[in-house]
Amino acid sequence: FAFGYNSVITKRNKFFLPVFRDLDAQLRAFRDKAAAAMPGSDWSPIELTPGLPPERADVVIVGGGVVGWSIAYWLKMKARVRDGLRVLVVEKDPTYSQASTVLSCGGIRQQFSLKENIMLSLFSAHFMKNINNHLCVVNEDPVDLQFNHSGYLFLASEKSAHIMEENYRTQRYVGAKVALLSPSQLKERFPWMNMEGVALASLGLENEGWFDPWSLLNALRRKAVSMGVYQCFGEVTGFKCAANLAETTDGEVLNVQRIKYVNVRMPNSLEYQPVECAVVVNAAGANSGKIASMLGIGLGPKESVSGVPLPVEPRKRFVYVVHCPDGPGLDTPFLIDYSGVYCRREGLGGNYITGMSPEETEEPDISNLDVDHEFFQEKVWHRLAHRIPAFEQLKVSNAWAGFYDYNTFDQNGIIGLHPLVPNMYFATGFSGHGLQQSPAVGLAVAELILDGGYKTIDLSALDLKRILLQEPILESNIV
Amino acid sequence: MAASLLSQAMKRCSAHTCAAVAVRRALSSGAATPSVYTRFLLKLSHYFYDVENILDWNNWLRSQGVIHKNRFAGQSEWFRPDSRGRFSYDFMSTPDAKIEEVDLSGTLINHNGLENLVKQNKLQTLSLRGCPEVDDWFLARLHVFGESLVELDLSHCSRITVGGLAALQNLRKLERLDISGLPRLQNPGLVRILLEEMLPHCQVSGAEYEQGLIQPDSQEQTEGHHEASTHTGLRHL
User: Fold this and answer.
1) Phi and psi dihedrals of A247, rounded to 5?
2) Mean pLDDT of the region B129-144
3) Dihedral pair phi/psi, residue B172, rounded to 5°
4) Measuring CA to CA, how many Å separate B133 from each of B123, B138, B153, B157?
5) Contact A139/B21, CB-based, under 8 Å?
6) Residue A141: what are its φ and ψ, rounded to 5°?
7) CA angle, corner B231, sides to B225 and B235, nearest 5?
8) I need a labelling partner for A392 at 20 to 30 A (CA). Which of A459, B63, B169, B184 fits?
9) What is the overall mean pLDDT for chain A?
C-alpha cells in the first residue's frame, strides 16, 4: 500500500484503525485462507517473493547442468500426460559461471574400455543426430549444436598397445565405428604428427567429435520448460526427513531417512522454501558430495554403511586456447597422446584447445577457478610440441578452468539409489564425461524413477552399491 | 479436445519472436507470405497448449515420413522410373553386379537412408545435388566408402557446414568434390583451401579463393561495412 501509515489516521478513519494496525498478519491470514480454499492448487492471490519454487513437487532435481535438465526432459517425455508429473529443477547459479557443463571442451567419443560407457556415448550420439526430432519446440529456431565430426585419435605406446587392441574389440562389438592405424598409416594420414614412441593409434570414424555444450543445455532446458518443468534458481541448504530404524542381517541398526522436504534458499537472501517432494535426484556435479553429506552419508562411524561418503569431489582442470598459424588443418582430430596431453582444433583460424590432466599428487587448489599458466609452460607445452612439431611456436591467447565431478573411487558415473536414503537417486561422478553421456543418463534415471528398472541401456554395473561393497569397475581411457 | 481447447488456461511463457517451423516450411516451398490459416494456427499455439501439441505431432509425423521414405526408396542407378513412375526391375536379374554410380539429387535422403547403400563397397560416384535432408551426420556416415569413392557432389545441400566437411578426411581416394551453393559456409574460399590441404589428390570445385575476401576497390565506399564484416568473419571462425 503506497500511502503512509500516518496519513490514514484522520478523525474520519479512526474507525478503521484496527484494520491497518495488523495489516501484515491479516494479509498472511488472508493468503493462507485463500490457499486452503483450493487445496489441490498452489495459486495464491499475493505473490510475496518472485522466483520462489512451488510448495509441492513430485520430483526435485538438485543441479541445473546438462545431466539435471536431461533427466527433467526425459521424465516429462515418459510421463506423456501434461501436468501428470511435477518436476522442479533447482540450480544454484543463474549465470552458470562455475558450472562444469559450459566450461567443458564439448567432446564426445565412443572409445572407452567399459561397455556401459560405450553404450551411453553411442545413445547420446544418436540422440544428437536426431536432436530436432526430440527437442524441437513449436515456433522456435531449430537446434544447432555446431557438431564437428572430426573424431578422436588415441595414441598408444608399446606398453599400452595391447590394452588398445582389447578396447578396440569391445568397441567394435558394442557397435562403435573405430579403426586401428599403424604408425606408417598415421604418417600418411597426418603428416604433421611426430610418430616417435607411438606403436598403435585408434581413430573414431563416426559419431565422434565435439560440439557446443551451451547449445545442448539450452535446447534441453527450452524443451523441458515448454513441457512444464519448473525452474528455480536457489541453493539447496538442507533436507527434512522422516527417520526409520532398520536392522541388517548382521544385527547392525541403520538409520534410514526418507526425504520429506527439500529446503531451497533464495539467492542473496536468508529466505528459504521447504519443497515437499516424493523423489530427489542428486545431479549436482562437483557439489554432489556436499549434498550427500547434508543427509549424513559419510558422517557415521567408519565401519558402518553410513560411514562411507559419496566419493565425488571437485577437481580443477585447465583448458588453454593457443594460436598457431602453421598448425594442422581441417583434418585435426581430437588428439589424445599417451602422456595425457590432449589437443583439438577450434574454428578455422589456426586456434586450438589443449590441456592435460595433472598427476594425482599435484592436484590444483579447488577453492577458486584461477588458471595456472605455469602448468602449461612446464608440463603441457613440451609434450605437445614433441607430438606436433608445428606447436613449438605458438601463443596462448586464452585459458579457463572448470571442475570435473571426479569420482575418486573408480572414475565412472554413479547412478542409483543409496540404501540409507530410499528416495534419493544419484546421477553424478562422471569424471569429465558427463556432458557426452548426459542424454543417455537422463533416460536411464527417468526409467529408474518411473519404471523401476532400466529399459534401454542396462547400467547396473554403474550402481551406487559398488561403492559400499568396495568393488571398483575401472575405466582405462580417462582423459 | 474441442472443449478443452476453449477452457485451457493461457500460456505462461512470453511471446517468441522467431519464425515458426510451419512458416519456414511454407517459405522454403516458395510461398511469399504464410497463409492466413498458418498464421491463425500460430496465434492459437501461443495461447493454448493443445494446439501446440498438435503442431508438435505434425512436425514429428513429417519427420517420420522422411524416415519412412528413406527406408523404401530404391537406388536409381540410371534405371530411371518410366513416365508413369514405375521402376523396371531388370537390374534384379543381376544381383551380383556392383553399383558404381548413384544419383540421388533432389531426393529426401538422410542418414537413415544410407542403410540401403552401405553394402555397396565399390561405389565410385555419389551425387547429392540439392538434397535438403543431407546434413553433417550423413557425411560422417560416408566413411564406409573410404576405399572406393572417387567423386562426390554436395552442391546446394543447405544443411552442410564445415563440421561435416571435416568428416570427409576418411575418403582418401576422393578426386572430385563439388561444394558450390552451400549457404551455411561463411568462408567458402578458406574452406576450399583447407579441404585441398586435407585431401591432397582431390580437386575441389564450387568455391573460389576470393569468396569471403574483402574486395580492394569497394573499400572507399564500404568503410563502415568493412569493420562489420571482418568482425562477423572473425566471430564465425
Assistant:
1) -115, 130
2) 89
3) -70, -20
4) 21, 9, 15, 8
5) yes
6) -60, 150
7) 145
8) B169
9) 90
More confident residue, A170 or A4: A170
8 A C-beta contact, residue A215 and residue A146:
yes
Confidence at residue A1, expressed as pLDDT on a 0 to 100 scale: 43
**Which of A129, A130, A330 minimises the CB distance to B198?**
A330
The pLDDT tens digits for A76-132 are 999 988 888 999 999 999 999 999 999 999 999 999 999 999 999 999 999 999 998
| Cell numbers 495488523: residue | A22
The answer on pLDDT for A371 being more than 80 is: yes
> Is the Cβ pair B59, A146 closer than 8 Å?
no
Write out chain A residues lying below 8 Å of B141, CB-based.
Answer: 206
The secondary structure element, H or E, covering residue A474 is: none
The Cα–Cα gap between B198 and A253 comes to 66
pLDDT over 60 (residue A375): yes
B143: nearest CB among A139, A206, A347:
A206
The residue whose grid cell reads 567443458 is: A104
Report d(CA A195, CA A182) in Å as an integer: 10
- Chosen from B137, B165, B202, B230 to mutate, greatest number of chain A CBs within 10 A: B137
Would you tell me how many other CB atoms lie within 10 Å of the CB of residue A363? 14
Chain B CB contacts of A347 below 8 Å: 236-237
Q: Is the pLDDT confidence value at B84 over 70? A: no
Range A423-443 average pLDDT: 95
ipTM of predicted assembly, 2 dp: 0.84
Closest alpha carbon within chain A to B194: A330
Give the dihedral of Cα atoms B69, B75, B79, B85; nearest 10 deg: 0
Determine the residue type at A81.
V
